[in-house]
Amino acid sequence: MSVHFSFPFTINGSAAVVAQDSDAEVQQNVMVLVLTDVGERLEVPEFGISDPTFRTEIDTEAIAEAAEVWDDRAKVLIASDIDQMVRNIRLNVEDQ
Hints:
By secondary structure, the chain is of the alpha+beta class. Helix content is 24%, strand content 25%. The chain has one domain: Roll (Nuclear Transport Factor 2, Chain: A). The chain has helices spanning 23-34, 60-70, and strands spanning 3-5, 17-19, 74-83, 86-93. The strands form two sheets. Strands 1-2 form a two-stranded antiparallel ribbon. Strands 3-4 form a two-stranded antiparallel ribbon. Helix 1 (23-34) packs across helix 2.
């Protein structure tokens, strides 16, 4: 079984890892995507989402779309209207 370093990278005697093709890896991939601003990665400038810092609404549809583009195993469902200030993102992983 192949493994990847976990995000965030941690060392507790040894480097923490997640199994390749596991649900945890897909969740981690989406988390990295959401925490990366478009243009931040010089090698892949189109990776990430637009900086939501000064927006009044989070573009949840763009997050879902980007997650499915960058990792086709991720199917993101957005639960809205829970509260004006809270958005829940649920991630489903497609079996390959």
